[in-house]
Amino acid sequence: MEVQLKSDAAVAAALGRRFARQVGLTAPASAEVAVVVSELATNLVRHAGAGGTVELWCEAGWLFIRSRDRGPGMTDPARLFMGRGEGRPGPLPGESLGEGGAAVMRLTDGVHVSNREGGGLEVVARKRVILENRRHR
Length: 137
Hints:
This protein is an alpha+beta fold. It is 34% helix and 23% strand. Strand 4 and strand 5 (121-128) form a beta hairpin.
């Protein structure tokens, strides 16, 4: 999905939740997927300037969430996961809390972030697909 506006991020999160439910994740796990998609999509709008894309797919028991932007990338991509932490000042009015990357780490089973050749940042998160135990009566 193409993400350029804040409203695109909300739509992407809703579609991410629906996709997670369709592949069999539990309601709580699907809600976590929606948060991850929302955080990654919001970063595209807030930091990448030209926006980017969010994609979801399943492969070999994993749900993958990938965001790619057309921004300048990051000098140190690992900083995406640091959060505010101790000693970092709080956000100014209108700034983000700076915890999105840390939330993505907590809500998934693995995340890889890298600068893309030719510019931009790519984040790939994965979540184990643990199917909901649905009883048939």
